[in-house]
Specification:
heterodimer, A: two-stranded antiparallel sheet
Amino acid sequence: MEWVIAVIISGLAVGAMYAMGTISLSMVWGSLGMLNMAHGALLSLGAYACYVAVTKFGFPWWTGFAPALLVGAVGGMILYGGIVRWIFAKPNFAINTVVATIAAAALVQNLINVTLGAEAQLQPFSFDGSIRFGSVAVRIQPLIVLLAAFAMTLAISALLWGTKMGRAIRAVSQQREAAYLMGIPVTRVYLQIMIISGVVSAASGLLLTGLTTIYPTVGAIPTIKALIICTLAGLGSLWGSVAIALAFGIFEVAVQYALGSRFGFSVTLTVAICLLVWRPYGLFGSARVGRI
Amino acid sequence: MMLKHEQFAPLRSNLLIALLVTALFAGLPLIGLSNFTISQITLFFIWACVVVQWNLVFGVAGIMTLGHAAVFAFGAYTTAIIATHTPIPFVLAFLLSAPAGMLLSIALGLITMRMRGEYVAIVTMAVAILLYTVVVNDVDCFKVVDMICYNFTGGTRGLAGYGDFRWVKILGFKYRALGDYYVALATLSAGLVLAILIICGPFGLAFKAIRDNETYARSRGVDYRKFQLIVFGIAGVVTGLAGGVYSGFIKTVGPTTLDTDLLVFLLSMMIVGGRGSTWGPILGTAALMLADNIFQAYGAWRTGGLAVITILFIVVYPRGLAGALYTVYCWLTRLLGIRHGSVEQRVAR
């Protein structure tokens, strides 16, 4: 039984990483119905902002989160001002956002590659050490990631369901034209969501890279997994995606343990695709019928 | 009945243009191009072929698949793997890339059958990533020759030295580049004619109906499942074949064919040309290959440059080059006082 506990604990650590990478994507998709393929770019931007501030400008390591969040907010703003603002409320919004944000991700990756180099770097903003629970030792960093993932999901839920701003966001996501006619400043709501998403993504990237290293495509794999997790959970189901992320992590570690580490991702991905063929709108989602 | 006549008129003129373009490219080597130019044009044919078929699914049918580059890679890998590991001659291995492409494409069509919109984009991308992961993690020896281990898919290094069309033997050293040129041109032309038949025929109308308002189209009896599988199948055959041509032309196939860089490259061709238009993919491919040759000097910025162009087109001019050309055409005909289209059509516009 020892290995079961080991698999669950390291699975939860991996799952915490996935949950962390999913929050912002799930929020934007759920509230604006917009699939942000540049999510990974925002993750890398946050991670690199901290790295540059600490190693190049000599910030103390624990202050590194501030530039990361700032850059995330600016990134969200640029994404809104450069892309979203011009294509929303126009025909083919879904297809245009997917294409434009894929391009934006490629652009950011290229920028980082050219300016900072493609080599892997260590994230200075991380926590060492471990805590013992009985016979098993748990590293602090994944524990912090897990707690932060819960805290951030809780905060976003509170924002969406408990504040005036959240009410405006939900109104816009349900019926944009009606919300506009009721006097809700639709463009400002979009901007707010993009900025929040940028900050959350940057924080996710910062905490995620504490577990790995930083490299230009560091956001790519978490994004792929986040996309799959979001889809499995169903459109914009915040808590559903946290649950799926943890299950995904445990399953992947179990597969790695049973079959060897290189099969972890491919088997998990295959299972996820099969689940989606069975439930095309996710495990917690439902189909939306278009209006005539 | 009047409408029926009108809707088949563009079919004839488009086929005529396709014939003219093919004839033009077939005669182009006669003016004596360098081998480099010929190989660049060959590459243009291959990419144009892929983008035309992708546009058929993505633009015309409006199914947001991102797995199309993987279909291309699957065709290329099929040819390379068969030619490497079996005694089957290369030409036969090349032809097998077509059913292979169709297989993967129809599988994508079946997987996404009940999904819509962004869900399709995510799941098709997941399939592409799955293929990439399988190839990159392939470290088992499939066969061992002289103590050297050969992987089934070639792993991260890819496959090479599996042979080619042997144009040097058939056409002689001087004209060897022309063999690939004409094979690629033939594939492109065949794919183009198929695409035009679909866009201008009754299929095209069904796709348009599904794309514009699926609920309404379904309530009027358009069976989207049948059409989805047919379009995935046709696009898969031609794209797989383009992959086969690529493996014979480049002579090596690696995981770069499954890379996001290639995806972005092909996607920007479609967007710049004009998504959903008949001639957009060809125009876009030509424009971006020209731009790419100019950007070559700034190698590090290649993908970034393409990304900026794509975003600009999406934001500023989503109709793309084909749309621009159409506007110029309308403007010219109006200037010259030529009537085009029936009264109904002009009213509809």
